[in-house]
Structure formats: C-alpha cells, structure tokens
Write a structure and sequence with these properties.
Elements (H helix, E strand, L loop, with lengths): L3 E5 L6 H9 L17 E7 L2 E7 L11 H15 L2 E7 L6 H13 L2 E7 L7 H8 L7 E2 L8 H22 L7 H4 L15 E6 L6 H9 L17 E7 L2 E7 L11 H7 L2 H8 L2 E7 L6 H12 L3 E7 L7 H15 L8 E3 L8 H15 L5 H14 L12 E8 L4 E6 L7 H14 L8 E5 L3
Parallel strand pairs: 1-3, 1-4, 4-5, 5-6, 7-9, 7-10, 10-11, 11-12, 14-15
Antiparallel strand pairs: 2-3, 8-9, 13-14
The protein binds guanosine-5'-diphosphate (2 copies).
Length: 460
C-alpha cells in the first residue's frame, strides 16, 4: 500500500489536467466547462520513482444545500478523508477567490497533510496569484503548470518525504500481508492469492441502463457516484476502493459504456473503450444484465471478452424487483445462458435488485467464490488420479490407429487456472476431447465460472 493523494480545488483550476499527467492514462475527462468531471476518480500515479494512488475530486464548492454542488462538496470531503495527503490547487492566473479561502479553512481542519499548489503558473501572468497563495496560511505554494509539466520536481520533493513516512509506518503496522488466509476461504493446496492487503479487483460491466451506477451506489450505501437526471454527468472507467461486507475491493465502474444522448461526442469517444479496460484491470467481472432485456449482443460480447481475457465471471441479472413470474423467468435465463455463453458454463447467475438492494449479499458471496475458484490450485497428485479415471472412463481417440497417450498433468498457473497435459501427438488431439477434460475439471474440482486453460504438450 502506498500513499494516497487527493487533488482538490474548485472547478477549472486544472485538477484533471494534473491527474492525467500523473496517471499517464486518460482516466479523467478534462473540459473547459466547469464541473464536467464531477466524481471521485482514482488512478495509479507516478512521479519519478514515486508510486502512489491519486484521487481526482469534484470541485470544492461553497454550497451547503443538497444541490448537486452540495453533494460535490461532500464527495470532496470524503476524498480528503480517504487521502493521506491533499494537493490543494488554486488557479494562479485568477488569484485566490473567496471559495478558495473557505476551503483552505476546511482543509486546515480536516486534512493531515496539505500541499498547496498554485497552478497555471507558467509565465509571469501568474506571479501575483502565487504571492496571494502564501496568504492562505498553508505554507509555501508550489508553482505548478499541470498543462506544461512545470513544477513537477517541486511536487516530487514535497511528496517524497511523506511517501517515505507512510511506507515506513505501514511496514511497521503490517509486517505480514497474508495473515488472514485461513479465514479468507477454504482452498486446497497452496495459498490463494487473497491477502489482507490487496483489494479484490472487480469490474461491473453491462449495457447502458442496466443499472451499474445504481448497483455501485447501493453497494457504497452513499452517493459517491452521482446518478440522476442532471444532464452531462458522465464518467469513464474509474475505480473506487471500498469495503463491501468487510471485503476490501476495488470496483471499476464502467459507465463509460453508456450512451447518453446529452453527453458530448468528445466525452463519449474518450469513454468507449473503458469497459474493455476495466475488464483487463479486473480479477472478477460482474456482467450486469437487465432482466427485461437480457443477453443482448453487447452483453454477450463483453462476457465473451471477459472469458477470453481469463477473468472470473459472475452474471448478475438486475431489476429483479419488477419481474413477476420469477421462477419461470429464472429457468428461461439459465437456458439462454447455457445456450448463448457455453464458454462460461457454470458461472454463477445471481438475481439482484440494485434499487432495493435485494440479492446483493448473494452477489457478494458469488464474487468472493468466483475469485477463490479463479485462484484455486489443485495438487498434482489429485490431478493425476483424476486424469487416470477420466482416461478409463473415456479413452482418448486413436487417429490413424495410434492412440494418443496422456501421460501426466499438472497445474501450471492460477488466475485463471491453467493446466498442462503431457501427451503424445498433441497436434492430433481433437478439440472435443480437450473439452471433455476441461468440463471434467470444472465439475470434479468444483470450478464453476472460471476460464480454464488446458495446454497439451508433446514430450519430444
Ligand atoms: P478541473 O475542473 O479543476 O479539474 O480543471 P481541468 O483540469 O478540467 O482544467 C480546466 C482548464 O484549465 C482546462 O481548459 C485546462 O486546459 C486548463 N489548464 C489546466 N492546467 C493548466 C495550466 O497549467 N496552465 C494553463 N494555462 N491552463 C491549464
Ligand atoms: P447504468 O447506465 O448501467 O449506470 O444504469 P443506471 O444505474 O443509471 O440505471 C438505469 C435506470 O434503471 C435508472 O432509471 C435506474 O433507476 C433503473 N434501475 C437500476 N436498477 C434497478 C433495479 O434494480 N430495479 C428497477 N426497477 N430499476 C432499476
């Protein structure tokens, strides 16, 4: 675990621009309009040899009502609480505004460490604003130009001692990372990769309006993500660190797959591939379907992608609250699932209502279980006993009169489970026999819903 830095400041001072520079990937959207980036978003920041988590916040607003701006302010306060260090940014070209002052006060009270940055400081036009910034009582401002990359050395110098201190403290507090293994889940063989320190990485993907935002909000139990009728609210793939029923998770939200008519095309374009990116980041992919229109092309494509990328998959059927003939519907869904996504045979299918919260505990369980299976390691002896039995039950084919011999099998990797079978003439093995083995592994070792890779290797 490393330092977490929150970039805070009123809208348009250049937070997202700096975030993008630190993260180096286009995880945040930047626009001239104030307030386009309204959520907390998180990325892995780099500056020289420093690695840290960066949170980009909504603008700090002088608003106390329950309007959008009031919520934005609360979100920012939450980011401040999540962070080890706040980078408080002002616009040196505009100078210090009353809003800046108000929130400087909040930060003084609330934040452990504040780094003051006077941004847009390239050129002499910023000099007056930089001087004003001293008056905020938060120490010497760093002259920064997020856009031009100036002042990054000073930022590094300010962050480095804090990063070191945090790393030392964390090393003291947590000398062991994998202490809770026994409680994390029963797993045969070697230790699974679940550790107390590393959050489980989950992506929630699905078509626009499937209910992704509603679901994530419900899980969070708070309005960390903004949903609702306000025009132009959009996000790209961002991740949120949460403890869901006590399980540390990092959830990748992929509302970028939404197509909202009101959102400008530019923003859309930036967001299109986010669903795919989230799948790559994730360990477990939750494919969220709308019960009224399940298994549409787009759903199938993303589920297939998740399988091909080797992710554990959980199918969640949302809006179950509006279904009437639930039993029949569920039977239908299961039949469709088997027919349309045979490659994900046995993956858990959970019905939920993001709106009411029903089924979320089961979804949580399914995610943990899928993750556990994905990390499963089967001892070699057990595998080879199993292989012998499989061969007896259904001997391998004998193309051109020469029977293929399967000699030995081992699990070469986890996440997802990958197996190697040593055999004669691997090139002649029909796909159907490999499928027989993969399905057998799935059933006999209880590994539903995880991609299983089987490699045949000749023995020279
Ligand atoms: P945020 O709303 O605070 O996240 O601000 P943005 O990152 O969206 O930036 C707001 C505007 O300021 C954009 O037009 C940026 O191009 C511009 N901007 C950001 N950083 C700099 C900078 O260092 N210098 C100048 N001149 N403009 C900047
Ligand atoms: P996203 O585009 O996938 O993020 O979907 P949203 O979370 O914005 O939800 C789209 C619409 O579906 C909204 O009008 C939600 O209120 C509605 N919705 C989401 N989940 C449920 C649910 O479980 N039941 C019902 N009845 N409606 C839901």
């Amino acid at each position: 675990m490393s330092l977490t830095l929150a970039i805070v400041g009123r809208p348009n001072v250049g937070k997202s621009t700096l975030f993008n520079r630190l993260v180096g990937k286009r995880l945040a959207l930047v626009d001239d309009q104030p307030g386009v980036t309204r959520d907390l978003r998180e990325g892995e920041g780099r500056l020289g040899d420093l690695r840290f988590t960066v949170i980009d916040t909504a603008g700090l607003e002088d608003a106390t009502d329950d309007s959008l701006q009031g919520r934005m302010r609360r979100l920012t306060e939450r980011a401040v609480d999540m962070a080890d260090v706040c980078l408080f940014m002002i616009d040196a070209r505009t100078g210090v505004t009353p809003t800046d002052e108000l929130f400087a006060e909040i930060l003084r009270k609330r934040s452990k460490h504040v780094i003051l940055a006077a941004n847009k400081a390239e050129g002499a036009a910023a000099d007056a604003g930089v001087l004003e910034a001293y008056g905020l009582g938060l120490g010497e401002p760093i002259r920064l130009s997020g856009e031009h990359g100036e002042g990054m050395t000073d930022l590094y110098a300010a962050l480095m001692p804090l990063a070191d201190a945090i790393e030392e403290k964390q090393a003291e507090d947590a000398p062991e990372t994998d202490i809770d293994l026994d409680e994390a889940g029963e797993t045969e063989g070697e230790a699974p990769a679940i550790t107390a320190a590393k959050p489980l990485q989950v992506a929630v993907v699905g078509r626009p309006n499937a209910g992704k935002s509603t679901l994530i909000n419900k899980i969070l139990g708070e309005d960390r993500l903004l949903t609702g009728p306000e025009a132009g609210i959009t996000r790209d793939a961002i991740s949120l660190r949460i403890d869901w029923n006590g399980t540390p998770m990092r959830i990748f939200d992929t509302a970028g797959m939404r197509k909202k008519a009101k959102v400008q095309e530019k923003l859309e374009k930036l967001s299109v591939s986010d669903g795919l990116r989230a799948v790559k980041f994730a360990e477990v992919v939750v494919v969220l379907l709308d019960a009224a229109i399940p298994f549409e092309q787009q759903d199938l494509r993303i589920a297939d992608l998740a399988e091909r990328e080797g992710r554990a998959v959980v199918i969640a059927v949302n809006k179950w609250d509006v279904e009437e003939a639930k039993q029949e519907k569920l039977r239908d869904l299961k039949a469709q699932f088997e027919r349309l996504l045979p490659q994900l045979r046995g993956a858990p299918l959970v019905t939920v209502s993001a709106k009411t919260g029903r089924g979320l505990d089961r979804l949580h369980e399914a995610i943990l279980r899928a993750h556990e299976v994905w990390n499963r390691r089967i001892p070699t002896a057990a595998l080879n006993r199993w292989l012998t039995a499989m061969l007896e039950q259904h001997p391998p084919p004998a193309p051109q009169g020469r029977r293929i011999k399967l000699r030995y099998m081992t699990q070469a990797k986890t996440r997802p489970p990958g197996f190697v079978v040593m055999c004669s003439h691997p090139d002649k093995m029909p796909a159907s026999y490999s499928r027989y083995l993969v399905n057998g592994l799935r059933d006999d070792f209880d590994m539903p819903g995880t991609p299983i890779r089987l490699t045949l290797r000749g023995q020279g």
